[in-house]
C-alpha cells in the first residue's frame, strides 16, 4: 500500500514550496488508494513555535489537503528515538563520541586552512586494533552513526534519476546530541520506518540528506522508501523564490482574495503537466497524477497565470459561497451588511468582472456605505445636457415596478425625451450610485438597491 507523508518543520509558515510538496504527496497517495500522513518535525525546540504549527495546520485545512493519519509530533516520540539509539549502540552501528564542540570547530578550521573538506575525523570511532582514549571525566558524549567507510550509496530518484554518493564523502553523523536529544536526519529515518512510508516526495534541498538517511535505514535492516526530489520554485523574475513573490504563508493568498481551488490548480502545474491541460479539478488531478511527468528542472512562479486561474474559478463559483467569503472581508472593514441589497445578488452581478475576492468586496462595499462621488467625475458626467434627463428618470422611479426591465425602459424613455444617447444618462447614474464610471449594466445595477436608497443617492444630482 502506498504511504506518503508531508513533514514540515514548524519554524515558519507553510509557503508555496511546502504546499506544492504537500499537494504532490497527497495526490500520489490518492491516485493509488494509499494513505497520506501529516508529521510535524518539531525537534528544533529553539525555533519551533505553536503559532507556526497552527499556521501549517491552517494552511493545509484551507487548501483542503486532508491527511489520513496524524498529525504526529516528533517531540512526542522521544522515547522511541532513544530506544532505537540504544539498539544501534548495542549493535555497533553507532558509538559514543566525546569530542567537544570547540574541539570539532578547531579541527574544521584546520582542515579548511589545508584546503580539505571540513568534517569529523572519526577520532572516537571504534575500529579493530584501534585504542580509544579514556572518556574524559564529566563529559556527556554525543552519539554518532557509524557510516560505511567505503562503497557508494545510490538510489534511483523518481524525479532526478540515478544518484550515487561515495561513502567516503560522508562523515559519521551525530544522531543524538550530548544532551540526549536526537537529530533531524535520525528522527526522519525512524519515523519513515515506523509509519511505513513507501514514497518520500520532498524538495531537492533534501538530496544531501538522502544518502545519510538511506545508510541509517540499511543499518537498521529495514526497507528503504523510494525518493522523489522536487526542484525548487523560482519567482516571476527567475530568481529564488522570496517573500516578494510567493515565499509567504499560504494563508496570505487567502488574505489577498484567492480561492483555494485556484491556488491548488496553479500549484499542480508548477513542475508537473498532463498534456496541455491547464484547468482541472483536484479529482481529475489525482486521477492523472504521476511522478514520471514531474520535470527535474526548476519551476517558475507566474503571478499573472495565478490571477488568470483565480478569475476563472470566481466566474464559475456559487454566488452564495462567494458571498459567505466576502462577508467577513466587509465586516473587517467595519461595513454593516444589510439584507437589502442582497449580497449574493451583488456577487452574481460582479463575479465575472473581478480577479479576486477583495475586488469583489470593493464592488459590494459601495452598496452598503455612503459614497461621495469625486468632484471631477460629477463635473464630467453631471452636465447641463444630462441633468434634465436625470430629473425625468428620478420623477418616474416611484411609479414603476422594481425590476430591471422596467428600470431599463424608464432609462430609454428619459434619454429619448431629450434626444440623448444612452451613456448620457447611464454615466451619471453610475457615478451617483457607486462613485465609479465602470459598472455592470445600469438597469441591473439600479435594481439591486432599495428604491428609496436610489432616490436618496440621486437626490444629490443638482
From TrEMBL:
Monomer. GO terms for biological process: glutamyl-tRNA aminoacylation. The gene is gltX. The lineage of its organism: Bacteria, Pseudomonadati, Pseudomonadota, Betaproteobacteria, Candidatus Accumulibacter. A motif ('HIGH' region) lies at residues 8-18. Residues 321-459 form the Aminoacyl-tRNA synthetase class I anticodon-binding domain. It comes from the Bacteria. This is Glutamate--tRNA ligase. InterPro entries: aa-tRNA-synth_I_cd-bd, aa-tRNA-synth_I_codon-bd_sub2, aa-tRNA-synth_I_CS, aa_tRNA-synth_I_cd-bd_sf, Glu-tRNA-ligase_bac/mito, Glu/Gln-tRNA-synth, Glu/Gln-tRNA-synth_Ib_cat-dom, GluQ/Sye. One of its GO terms (cellular component) is cytosol. Its EC number is 6.1.1.17. Keywords: Aminoacyl-tRNA synthetase, ATP-binding, Cytoplasm, Ligase, Nucleotide-binding, Protein biosynthesis. NCBIfam families: gltX_bact. It catalyses: tRNA(Glu) + L-glutamate + ATP = L-glutamyl-tRNA(Glu) + AMP + diphosphate. Its main location: cytoplasm. Residues 2-308 form the Glutamyl/glutaminyl-tRNA synthetase class Ib catalytic domain. It comes from Accumulibacter regalis. A motif ('KMSKS' region) lies at residues 240-244.
Amino acid at each position: 500500500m502506498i504511504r506518503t507523508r508531508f513533514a514540515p518543520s514548524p519554524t515558519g509558515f507553510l509557503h508555496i514550496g511546502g504546499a506544492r510538496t504537500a499537494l504532490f504527496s497527497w495526490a500520489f497517495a490518492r491516485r493509488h488508494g494509499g494513505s497520506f500522513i501529516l508529521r510535524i518535525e518539531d525537534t528544533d525546540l529553539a525555533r519551533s513555535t505553536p503559532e507556526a504549527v497552527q499556521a501549517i495546520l491552517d494552511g493545509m485545512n484551507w487548501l483542503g489537503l486532508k491527511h489520513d493519519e496524524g498529525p504526529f509530533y516528533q517531540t512526542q516520540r522521544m522515547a522511541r528515538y532513544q530506544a532505537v539509539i540504544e539498539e544501534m549502540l548495542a549493535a555497533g552501528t553507532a558509538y559514543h563520541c566525546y569530542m567537544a564542540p570547540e574541539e570539532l570547530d578547531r579541527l574544521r578550521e584546520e582542515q579548511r586552512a589545508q584546503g580539505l573538506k571540513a568534517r569529523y575525523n572519526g577520532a572516537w570511532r571504534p575500529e579493530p586494533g584501534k585504542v580509544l582514549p579514556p572518556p574524559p571525566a564529566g563529559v556527556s558524549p554525543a552519539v554518532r552513526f557509524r557510516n560505511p567507510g567505503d562503497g557508494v550509496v545510490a538510489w534511483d530518484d523518481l524525479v532526478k534519476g540515478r544518484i550515487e554518493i561515495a561513502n567516503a564523502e560522508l562523515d559519521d553523523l551525530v544522531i543524538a546530541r550530548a544532551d540526549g536529544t536526537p537529530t533531524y536526519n535520525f528522527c526522519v529515518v525512524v519515523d519513515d520506518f515506523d509509519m511505513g512510508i513507501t514514497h518520500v516526495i520532498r524538495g531537492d534541498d533534501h538530496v544531501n540528506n538522502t544518502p545519510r538517511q538511506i545508510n541509517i535505514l540499511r543499518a537498521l535492516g529495514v526497507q528503504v522508501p523510494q525518493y522523489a526530489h522536487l526542484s525548487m520554485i523560482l519567482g516571476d523574475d527567475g530568481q529564488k523564490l522570496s517573500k516578494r513573490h510567493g515565499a509567504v504563508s499560504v494563508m496570505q493568498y487567502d488574505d489577498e482574495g484567492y480561492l483555494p481551488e485556484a491556488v491548488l490548480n496553479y500549484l499542480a502545474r508548477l513542475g508537473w503537466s498532463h498534456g496541455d491541460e491547464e484547468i482541472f479539478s483536484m479529482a481529475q488531478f489525482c486521477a492523472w497524477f504521476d511522478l514520471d511527468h514531474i520535470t527535474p528542472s526548476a519551476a517558475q512562479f507566474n503571478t499573472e497565470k495565478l490571477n488568470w486561474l483565480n478569475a476563472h474559478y470566481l466566474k464559475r463559483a456559487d454566488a452564495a459561497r462567494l458571498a459567505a467569503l466576502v462577508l467577513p472581508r466587509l465586516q473587517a472593514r467595519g461595513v454593516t451588511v444589510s439584507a437589502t441589497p442582497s449580497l449574493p445578488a451583488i456577487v452574481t452581478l460582479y463575479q465575472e468582472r473581478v480577479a479576486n475576492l477583495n475586488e469583489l468586496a470593493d464592488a459590494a462595499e459601495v452598496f452598503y456605505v455612503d459614497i461621495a462621488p469625486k468632484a471631477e467625475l460629477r463635473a464630467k458626467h453631471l452636465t447641463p445636457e444630462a441633468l434634465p434627463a436625470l430629473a425625468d428618470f428620478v420623477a418616474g422611479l416611484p411609479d414603476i415596478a422594481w425590476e430591471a426591465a422596467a428600470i431599463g425602459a424608464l432609462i430609454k424613455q428619459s434619454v429619448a425625451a431629450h434626444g440623448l444617447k444612452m451613456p448620457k444618462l447611464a454615466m451619471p447614474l453610475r457615478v451617483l450610485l457607486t462613485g465609479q464610471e465602470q459598472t455592470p449594466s445600469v438597469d441591473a445595477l439600479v435594481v439591486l438597491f432599495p428604491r428609496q436608497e436610489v432616490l436618496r443617492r440621486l437626490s444629490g444630482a443638482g
